[in-house]
Structures are given as C-alpha cells and as structure tokens.
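User: Predict structure, ligand iron/sulfur cluster.
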Amino acid sequence: MEQEIYRVYSSYLKEKYGEKVYKLPVNLPVTCPNKENGFGCSFCSDSGTGFEAMSQSVSVTTQLEETREKIEKRYGAHKFIAYFQNYTNTYLPINQFEQYVNEAAKVKDIVEISVSTRPDCIHEAYLRVLEKVKKSSSINITIELGLQTANYHTLSKLFRGHGLAEFLGAVQLISNYGFELCVHIIPNLPYDTMEDVVETAKIISVLPVSQVKLHSLYIAKGTIMAEQYENGELEICSKQEYFERLAHFLMYLRKDMVIERLFSRIPEQDSLFSNWGESWWKCQDEFLQYMKEHDFYQGKLHYKTGQLLIDKGYV
Ligand code: SF4
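Assistant: Predicted complex:
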C-alpha cells in the first residue's frame, strides 16, 4: 500500500461522520484582547481572519442557515461544522457565549462546533458550557488555538501577547474535557529557523493535540507586517525553503495528528503577498510531489518517548 504522505482533514471527517462534512464560518460580535490592548499580532488585519464570513450583525442562526443552503446546493452536503472563526470567540461574557453556542447547536445538520480562540482566553466556565452542549445534543466540540510557533522570542516579536506557557496551560485545561484540539502554526515565520520549526512539531506531538492547521505566511494589507514588508524590513523565505520546513514539521509530528491545511488562503485583493504569487492548490500539488520524491511522510522522524529503551530491548 502506498505510504500516506499526511493525514488529510477531509478524509478524517469522512471517516468520522461517514460522509463529506463542510465548515460553515460564523462571525460573532467579538473582538480580540490583543487588539484591544495593543496593536494585535503583526500579521493580523483589522478584519481578523474571517475573510469568507458574513457580517457580525447577522444572527448566528441566519449565518449558518444561509451558508448551509448554498453549500448544500453546490455540493449536496448534509453534515456541517459551525465554525466560530474570526477573532477570539471566547472573549465574551459567559452568558452571551452560551447563548451563541446553544443557537448554533440547534441549527439543522450541525454535527460539530469549532471554536477558535487564544490561549489566554481559555477558562473552565467556557469549557463547561461546551461540555453541556456536547452532552445534551451529541454535537462534537473542537477548540482551535493559535500558537504559530513554540519559539517564545518569536511570539514576542509578533506581538502575540502570550508566550508558550499560556499555550501549555490552555492545552492542559482543554484536555480535561476530551475535546478535539487544533493548533495553528506558521512554519515560515521570518524570525524562526528550521530548528524552531522542528522543536514546535516535537512539543505539539507530546501534547493532547489532535489536529494542526498550517499556514504559509501571508502579508495582509493594513497590518504591521505589511508596513515592515513595504519598508524592506521583512524577509519571506523562498517557496523551496517553505517546502523543506513544512516537510520537516510533518516528519517530526505524530502520525495520528490530522492536518487541516498546508498553505494559506487569503483573497488576492486583501494581501500584498501570498503563496509566492501562486494558488494554494498549485503549491500543494508541488509540495506533495516533493514529499513523494524524497520519500518524506508525516511521522517519519517522530521520536516516541522511551524509544531508545525499546530499541535497546530493555523493555
Ligand atoms: S490573536 Fe488572532 S484575532 Fe487577535 S490579533 Fe492575533 S491573530 Fe488577530
């Protein structure tokens, strides 16, 4: 059997739910503490990351129903994930958060709720709300946490407003609830080296993280990075170097982890730079070819704790 290059998210969802599942982005009336208290992350635009979502002023039910109808017609889909994508979706008074989650859970054909947030905005009270919904409606829960890199010096240069410790604390709390946990990583941050990328893969692999969403660094208009980029203060690595970093990240990662994305997707009109001027799918095809040619695959270099003792035959 041909070696699977990496564990693909869409196939994983098909295995889990028995058919294709689509994500429906929901824009909640939230902001982000990092934007409120400072500039926000240097790569984040004023509109955050929800380029495809509807306006915050539209109700959760309407956003979900209207998007579901379109996707249903286009792809004949029957199962959906309500995706609270933009900004920090737990940065809300708890009763408001509960109301939005319950509203999403009541929409027809929703099988999962995915909540995107920051490591410093995880609290037991919010996790209990999600647990209650999971138990009462059999809807699965995924939490998406932005980390980007385990290198806390880089996190500081990006103005992330949290370090590695806050991320580790959040992962510990979430793991008590048994939710799926997806972590966002940018393997080609200008301040990171290949060593940082490998260390990030190793750290994530020893944690109860089940999914990773990888982004190639893009430069969104109106961001701090856009200014740095236009002033020639920011160097973006070549496509070849991104392939090498991404390949090594995947090779050091646990084999069971699900990979949601390998290249960023940002509308052309919103960016100054993205995927070396090529489409994400062309980059992805090229990358998969590169992996095949080198016999690289996810988990190939993953180090299991205690492996040395097993290899020695001591246990
Ligand atoms: S935490 Fe997310 S929403 Fe907030 S500034 Fe950073 S990227 Fe933007």
